Amino acid sequence: MATLKQVAAHAEVSVQTVSNALNAPHRLRADTLKRVNRSIELLNYRPNRNARSLRTSAVELIGYCVPSWPNQTHLVMDQFLHALCAAAERTGRHILLFTAPGGVDGMPTYDDLHARRMVDGFVLSQTETHDPRHGWLKEQDIPFVSFGRVWKQTTQPGAWVDVDGAAGSAMAVRHLYASGRRRIAFLGWPKSSGLGEDRVGGWRDACKDLGLPIAGLAVRCREDSIEEGARATARLLDGGRTVDGIVALSDILALGALRELTRRGLAPGHDVGVTGFDDSPLAEVVSPGLTSLRQPMDQIAEELITILTGAANGSPVERLLQPELVIRGSSAPG
Amino acid sequence: MATLKQVAAHAEVSVQTVSNALNAPHRLRADTLKRVNRSIELLNYRPNRNARSLRTSAVELIGYCVPSWPNQTHLVMDQFLHALCAAAERTGRHILLFTAPGGVDGMPTYDDLHARRMVDGFVLSQTETHDPRHGWLKEQDIPFVSFGRVWKQTTQPGAWVDVDGAAGSAMAVRHLYASGRRRIAFLGWPKSSGLGEDRVGGWRDACKDLGLPIAGLAVRCREDSIEEGARATARLLDGGRTVDGIVALSDILALGALRELTRRGLAPGHDVGVTGFDDSPLAEVVSPGLTSLRQPMDQIAEELITILTGAANGSPVERLLQPELVIRGSSAPG
DNA sequence: CGGATTGTTTTTAACGTTCAAAACGTCCGT
DNA sequence: ACGGACGTTTTGAACGTTAAAAACAATCCG
Description:
The structure is a homodimer.
Chain A: H1 4-11, H2 15-23, H3 30-43, H4 49-56, E1 61-65, H5 77-89, E2 94-98, H6 107-115, E3 121-124, H7 133-139, E4 144-147, E5 159-163, H8 165-178, E6 184-188, H9 194-210, E7 218-220, H10 226-238, E8 245-248, H11 251-263, E9 273-277, E10 291-294, H12 297-308, E11 318-321, E12 324-326
Chain A binds a DNA duplex (30 and 30 nucleotides) through helix 2 and helix 4.
Protein name (chains A, B): LacI family transcriptional regulator
Keywords (chains A, B): DNA-binding, Transcription, Transcription regulation
GO molecular function, one term (chains A, B): transcription cis-regulatory region binding
């Protein structure tokens, strides 16, 4: 494997000149640059990243903790990872995966990776309501950016990128309204979830705006499962008054709604419009397709990397992005 | 950030002694070791991985190319990644993610990562029928191990770990047989797929063993989609003779079967037993649950890392693991 | 023509670690 | 008391790169 020294000898210049040819080509005379580049090509030289990192103390690696348990964003994790990876590579960086215990117990792992100079910083996801990681990392001066806001705190430590859940719910409500639905319910989670509060809030506000009823139309599911979604839907339908639209907080809950509707002989899309959240692979796989709110993964990843690598340079480090409504059969005009 | 030098000064020994305390503690006198360790702890010293890697030319990083397009194993990618990551960490290593074009076009990316000393080797997945990567990497002497066999080649370049698809299909057939099914069909893919041939072969052999018919019971779907699975099932059911069991090559195809059965008023599990492959998240989410063949992810990951890191040490570098049949409602005794 | 200015290249010295060899002790047998 | 053997610690050099400063060369200005 060729080294700078060998290239230098071949091109009959000093090592530093070869280094400059790669990192600051404008400093070289045109003909020298050409000669050096020819030697580089000829010897098939590739800079040793470890040596470079040792000298510059920047490893160009970004840590990402792979979540261990399924939950709401789990189904789109591969999309996210691919986008993140691609965005990192556009800046010459890469993603280093690791596992860590949840919450504050995982912090030593983060600290260790940083202290050993294995990563420059972290991208956090699976942000939780009182996520202790943000404050801890900020405290230690370890660079990071969060995908997802830490809810219920006035000022969140550190930078973040998130998708506007309230706006998403509102989009879903207005979409159902446009196809004639007038009693639109919401399938949510327990109050403790900040993400849940964000999304239910969007539903509530949009309904109020449009003059739609909300009383008795918000149901809280105990967990994010098909079963719970179905049960909650049953409760709604047994309530006596009709429901012609359901905005679910997740694709999983929406699937439960679809199942319960079908079981009762109601046609999703025709009799009741249903929407989900996150546009997971499930959404286009069920029958009829599930209308859902897609997170703009590429944009999210791009922003995360831009902010983390400091390229943001003055522009805000808190970015709220808009989801996109992907319309499928489950919300076909009734 | 503390360095070896600082620790050495603090413990009043040479740098090399501190290095030995970490890498070869048996060489130190007990009291020296204790003193050095106290200093390490006190200064919260962590070895700089870049410096170590530069010296030893081993980065303890394993490259994994994140697949860009959905396909059969896509739905369990996060399970795989988590297992791989955990297995790597058990040996002090980590996973570096990257993206690359498919097939031979991606090879420069692999080469580059290796030449720049950013990874020690690679784990390949999404192995394809005439996958050119294995031969190429072998040629370049770049360490790698493959999750999945390169099909239709007598001897595959390099080491691999795979799951026995034929055995899986056979398990499914015997399971359905045990609950009284006697006409068991197979939903497969076009002949070009080696993985498909493996799985259909297992079905065929098991049926022959049990004295079950196979003629006209193997259907090839054009692609891996719900729609195709449903269509193929329809073709089977329209064939005149009854079918009381369906072994599908993938969970997706199995879902299609479930849909078509339900559409015709047949109860999956009761009237026709259905099984899928890979035990994706979909399997436990549909109603009734889909019986499926789980890939032993933790074991797969463990083997991959063991082989790649050379810890295998004489033991075979070709490991065929057995899937596990996860029984759910779709194959409830008829 | 001397001095300043700018542009290009080289020299020197790190970055933090480990390897290999050398040095230092201590103990042993004779 | 001496050479050898062993166990422990230190010394010197190297891994491949880049930052900073120094050296050199060409150009410009009055």
